[in-house]
Fold:
Amino acid sequence: MDEKLVDVYDEVLQRNPGETEFHQAVREVLDSLGPVVAKHPQYTDAAVIRRLCEPERQIIFRVPWVDDAGQVQLNRGFRVEFNSALGPYKGGLRFHPSVNLGIVKFLGYEQIFKNSLTGLPIGGAKGGSDFDPKGRSEGEVMRFCQAFMTELYRHIGEYTDVPAGDIGVGGREIGYLFGQYKRITNRYESGVLTGKGLAWGGSRVRTEATGFGTVFFVDEILKTRKESLDGKQVVVSGSGNVAMYAIAKVQQLGGTVVACSDSGGYIVDESGIDLATVQEIKEERRARISTYVESHPRARYVEGHSVWQVPCDIALPCATQNELDGADARALVGNGCSIVAEGANMPCTPEAVRVFSEAGVVFAPGKAANAGGVATSALEMQQNASRDSWTFEHTEERLGEIMRRIHDRCLTTADEYGSPGNYVAGANIAGFTQVADAMLALGVI
Ligand code: NDP
Ligand code: 2IT
Structure:
C-alpha cells in the first residue's frame, strides 16, 4: 500500500474494530490507489479518501415480530448509507443469519465503486438483517418484512435511498416490503425500491441482470482473446438468483455449466446442469440442491464447500464473500481454469486473488463483473420516473452496453495507470476517481 494511504487504513482499523470483511474491502481498494494519489494529490489533501471510508450515515434498529407459534422473535436491522456524491443511496438488502454491521459496511463500501462504474447516477448503500428465512413460513416472512419496513420506511425514498434485493431477498420479499411502505406512507412511490414485480413497477431483465451481466463481462474478456463461450466448461457456485441466471446465459452462449452448489454441497452433471430443475428446486420448492440427483441419476452430489475441485475453463463464484480461498484457487489453476469472474461480492479471498494473478488467470472483480444487477436497478428507476416500461430486448440491450462500457473502462484505466490487463486496478481506480471528483466538487460535506 502507498505510504500516503497507510494512515487512512490504520484509522479504518482503529475506528471499526473487529469488522474484518470491511477491513478487507477497504484494503483491496486502497492497494490500487497508489498511482492515483501520486498523480492527483488533491485526493489526499482534501481528505477525500478518509471521508470515503466513513459512512455518511449508519442506521441500526430493532425488528420485533411474531412467529406462527405466537412467540415474539427479535432481529436486528441495518442500513448503511455510505456515499451519496453521485446520486441517492442505492444497494441491496440481505437477510441471512451471518449479517452484522461489518458485513453490511463491506457491502456498502463495494457498492460505492460498483455504482460509480455503471456510469449511472446512484450512490452506495447496503442493508439487511440477521433474520434467517430458511424454514420460515410465507406468513412469517411477510410479517418479518413488514416489521423491518416499519422502521426502514422513514430513512428511504426515491430521492434519498433506494434498496433492492441481495442474499435472502428476492421478488417475494420486495413485494412485502413495498406493500408495507405503501401502507405506512399512503404513497405509490414506485422508485423507492427496485426488483419489483413486473405487474407493479418492476423492470424486465432485473431478475436476470446480475447473472446475465457477469456472463456478458466474461464474453468481453473472451473477445479480447478472439474467443467465445462456445464449447467452454464453466463451474458456478451458489444456486440463487445470480447463479441461476449466470447458468442461463452461459448456456445461451454455447457454454456448458458442469457444476453448481448451495451452502450444503455441490452437484456435478457432466452433460450440463438442467436449469429448469434447479429453478424448480430453488424458486418453487425452496429446497436443497442435493435433491437434483433424484431426477438426474447421472449427476452426483458432493457434500461440502469445494465446488472448485471440479475442472473447468471458467469459474463464476456467485454465492457469498470469501467462499473461494487460496487452496480452491490452486485447484482451479491446476485444472487449467483461465478466467474467474465474481458474480458474488468479494467471493475470492485476497490469497486466492494473488494465486490467480501469479498464474496469469484473468480475474474480474465483483464490483465490475456483477454491476449488471444494480445497473438494471437504475434502469428500473428511470422507467419508474418516466412511468414507462421497456421491452425485454431493449432492456437487455442496455444492460449489454453497460457491461461492455464497464469492461472497456476497466482496461483503459488500468492501462492509463500502468497496470495493463489488471481488472482489479482498473475497476478500483475508475470507480474511485468519479466519486472522488464529485466529492471535491460538492465541497467538504
Ligand atoms: P440468493 O439468496 O438468491 O442465493 C444465494 C446463494 O448463495 C444460495 O445458493 C446460497 O445457498 C448460497 N450461499 C449464501 N450464503 C452462503 C454461505 N455462507 N456459504 C455457502 N453458500 C452460501 O442470493 P443472490 O444470488 O442474490 O446473491 C449471491 C451473491 O451475489 C451475493 O454475494 C450477493 O451480494 C451478490 N450480488 C447479488 C446481486 C443481486 O442482484 N441479487 C447483485 C450483485 C451481487 P443456501 O441457499 O444454501 O444458503
Ligand atoms: O450487490 C448488489 O449490487 C446488489 N445486491 C444489487 C443492488 C441493487 O440496488 O440492485
Notes: The first helix runs from residue 3 to 15. The mean pLDDT is 98. The two ends are 27 Å apart (CA to CA). Residues 4 and 95 are 37 Å apart (CA to CA).
